[in-house]
Structure formats: structure tokens, C-alpha cells
Specification:
The chain is built from three helices and four strands. By secondary structure, the protein is α+β, with helices and mostly antiparallel strands.
């Protein structure tokens, strides 16, 4: 099979721009991490607000990484991350490893 209609994309060219965007978001944002019980039938959730990132793809990748790190489920609602259970200390540890220092 020939490759005459095949186009390869090099994603490495956009990497410095993405890291620059992330760095500016990280410096500006004040992140709030709290534990809540209301509205979830008495179940505890950890709410991460104020990441300051509007890029939905980056937020979904961050959500996936934090769910694997914490070993729990979670969702993305209105640019806020919700994790199942009391994961405040684990989420703080994960975000510091990812470069978010203004918690």
C-alpha cells in the first residue's frame, strides 16, 4: 500500500508553546483543594478549583494522571476536578510533583 495520501504530523514542534502556556497558568493560578459531602448522597468528594487552565484537553490529561496517582475515580465539571473520596493530601502531593506550587 502506498503512502501518497498519508500525512504525518510532528507534535514536537508545539511542545515548547504548550509548556510556556502551562507555566504561565501555573504562576497565575491560586488553587483551592477542599473536601465536600453535600449533593453526593453523603459520599465524600475532593474538589480541586482554580487551576486557571481553560484548555480542556490538558485538563482531561491532568485528570487521568491524578486519578491513576490517587487510585480513585473522578470527573471534570466546569474546569474543576472532582475526585471520589478524601484525596486532599494525595492531590496536593501530585500537584506539587506536576509543578503547581501555589496551593
Amino acid at each position: 500500500m502506498g503512502k501518497k495520501n498519508w500525512i504525518e504530523f510532528d507534535n514536537h514542534e508545539n511542545k515548547p508553546e504548550e509548556t510556556a502556556k502551562v507555566d504561565t497558568f501555573i504562576k497565575r493560578a491560586k488553587i483551592n483543594i477542599s473536601k465536600q459531602k453535600k449533593g453526593k448522597k453523603g459520599k465524600t468528594i475532593t474538589l480541586i478549583k482554580g487551576l486557571g487552565i481553560e484548555d480542556e484537553i490538558f485538563l482531561k490529561e491532568l485528570l487521568k494522571k491524578i486519578k491513576v496517582f490517587c487510585g480513585t475515580g473522578g470527573t471534570l465539571i466546569e474546569s474543576n476536578i472532582q475526585l471520589q473520596g478524601d484525596m486532599v493530601s494525595k492531590s496536593i502531593e501530585f500537584l506539587r510533583k506536576e509543578g503547581f506550587h501555589n496551593l
